Structures are given as C-alpha cells and as structure tokens.
Amino acid sequence: MTHSDKHPRNLPLPLVAYFSMEIGMSPLMPTYSGGLGVLAGDTIRSAADLEIPFVAVTLLHRHGYFYQRIDARGQQIEEPVAWPIDDFAVPMDRIVHVEIEGRSVAVRAWRYRVKGESGFEVPVYLLDTDAAENSESDRKLTDNLYGGDLAYRLSQEVILGYGGLLMLRALGYGDIPRYHLNEGHAALLVLALLEEEFAGDAAKETHFSKAALDAVRERCVFTTHTPVPAGHDQFPADLARRVLGERRCRILSLCDQDQALNMTLLALRGSRFVNGVAMRHGEVSSSMFPDYPIHSITNGVHAVTWAAPPFQALYDRYLRDWRHDQLSLRYAISIPDQEIWSAHVEAKHALVEYLNRTTNAGFDRDVFTIGFARRATAYKRAGLLFHDVARLQKIADRAAIQIVFGGKAHPRDEQGKEIIRFLYKMREQLRGSIVVTYAPNYDMAMARLLCAGVDVWLNTPLPPMEASGTSGMKAAIN
To answer: What is the residue-wise DSSP string for 357-411?
Structure first.
C-alpha cells in the first residue's frame, strides 16, 4: 500500500464516518438519484467548509440511477449512464471481502475528495465490486443505484454496511467515535459493528448480551428521511437468511420464520440518536415507530453550491463572509432590491437560454415563469397546477405564463411515468395559450439553473408525505 492510499497521518482521525447509499458530489458523477443523495453531498460539503474530521462511504454506481430520455408522447426511456470514473476518483489498492449468499465477494474502493472553502478535504470512498476475482454477476452488484430485484438491493446493502466498515479498517481508519447512517440502506453497519464487538469470539456471539448492542448503539446515529411506508426497505425473512446467512440473522433474532428484515427498525434498534428531517417529519416518523424516540433536525442546503453566479457575486459584494459563515445570509435583507432583481434577471436569462437550446421550448425572458422539478411520483402532485385548466387559461389571458417541469420516475413506478405522459398531454393541449416544457434528465446542474432562474418555485406535495422539501431552500437562496 502506498502512503497516499492510507488515512493521512498528519490529519486527525475522523470524528464521523458517514454511510449513504447515494451521494451527490458532482452533476458529472451519477452517484445519486435525487434529494437524499443531494442532501448527503451538501452535508459533506458543509463538513469540509467547517473543517470537521469526516469520512464518507457510498457505492460506485457505474451505470448510475439512469439517463432519462423522453419521447414525443412523454414516454420515459431509461439508459445506463456512461461516465469516466478515473477522471474523478482515484482507485485504492486495498481489497476486502464480504459474504453474500455464502460466497466471498471482493470489494475495492475509489477515493473522491470534497474540498471546502479553506481547502480542507473530506474523503469519500466509493465501493466497487468490479474486481477480477469476482464472478461476472458479482462484478455488477454495485453498478445500478436502486436497480435490480430485492436480492440485488440487499446485496448492495451488505456491501455498504459490511464492506464499508471493512474498507475503512483496511485503509487505516481505526477508532471512529461516531457512525452516521443516512437512511436505512446503511443499517447493516449495525450488524457489522456488532460482529466487530464479538471479535471472532464464538462464545460472545452465542451468548449475545445487551451490553454488546449498547456498545454499538453508543457509536451510531441514524437519520430517517421518508414518511412514506414503501420507502422503508424491507426484505422477506427467507431472502434475508439466503443473502446474510443463518448466523447473522440469528444475532439479533431479526429473521424469524414470518418476520421480514426491516432496515429502518434495525437502524432504530442500533442507534443512540435518531432524527427526522423536519419538525413535521419527526412527528410523522414517531407515529410510524412509536417505540423509539425520534427527534427533528431540519434539512438544509449548501448555499455556495446552490447560489447562481450572479447571486454569488452579489453576496461577495455585500456579505463578505457568507462563503464561510452561511448564517450571514440573514443580512441579505440589507441588499438593495434593484440589485437583487438584476441578479434574478441574469439567472432567468441563463435558464431561458438553456431551455430553448435543449428543449426547443420557445420561452420568453420577459414572461412569468413557474418551475416544478423533482422525482415524478404520485404524492408530489406535479399535475395539480392543471386541476382547473379553464381557470389557469383565464389567468394566462390576463398575463402570460410559461411553465417548466422536470424529474425522473423510478423505472418501476408506472404511476410516476404516467404523470410525465400527462404533463406532455397538457403541453399539447395548452399550446398557443400557455408555453409548457419538460426538461429531461433532471440533475444537479439543471437544478442550479431552475431553482435560480424561475420566478416562482412550485411545490405541491400531499401532506404529510413530503419529508422536508430542500428544493425550495435552494430557490430561496436565489
């Protein structure tokens, strides 16, 4: 191992190891699908700004979530993403092995560095099973984010939890005081830490004590993000026994004959502190899991990432410390209104030029523009704006309106795909009275343009199913 492949000896050991199935580090790296991953990226960027000793672990998604194309009828077409991994990340020379369905699967890692405003760096390790010693099918286990069947998904969670901990140890990260589980996908880290507590002592494992679990709980915190029951990963007991093995299932009596493996419950049982991502979401989560105390820490966004260039320049002039202390943005109230308006107009022009170039929308810089872009799924209600089309057209008769939509539907979410088809129908129906466009392949780069450039950012979720709604925070920065 070269020195560069180890934890740098001149830096303190990390206070926090952050485990997340997806992390939005760059719009050119398809390692995220939406809000959960983008929030993870903003958390890491903020840690780098604050110079918090921090290390993050995720998976290397060679094919990403998917690249979205949309045909003339609004039918979503999913394609694998192609991206040059070695342009962004450096391969580590350590290999660790995890047991999946009774076989040994080799896991390697790539390192990506997130640099803060002062130059302080947070390493992110992306786990990858594309190793020569693996079978063809095992080499693809980390390829697709949220792809495949339940066995594929559970295998990925084994790689994240077990493989992530083993890789940190192999790279020289020893005693880390706190492990942060970002959503239930990382819950198997609890079992991995528990096995580390046993240290290969079969007697300790056979006579499992509450003290061992308490020792693990003291080191783990857990953030739950979804108020939608379907969003909490659950795996049938027989599948859990097949993938994890009888011994691991027996450790916490998680897999009784008729009991599913619930990753959220495992994370709840194994964490000393649990939080939802908004006050309302904390209340909803507490009602879903009444046996566990669930607190609230409202989500935030990394302001420097999401402020459009004209707003960055404006804040640089008036709020000199805002890049280091984002609380200084409270003083934006003192910036002259005309300068804020000028920055908005510049951001809007950039958006209009982008949409006209990529979607042939025919948007007008001087027309009132509404934006709605997020995952295409039923509870987010993208079509609510068209609930009363006649009334909307009367409004547009008095003052012109143009509307931009964006967002991906999960490949298996037929309802979500139907929403996109409906929006395309409305685009045709309103042609000549209201200009409507759909921007395909919504990602971080497009979000920066949309959140900054529209006149109104629209969010119409079905309460209380939206956990937090960070896209509105991005718009507010602009």
So the answer is: HHH-----TTSEEEEEES---GGG-GGGGGTTHHHHHHHHHHS-EEEEEE-PPPT
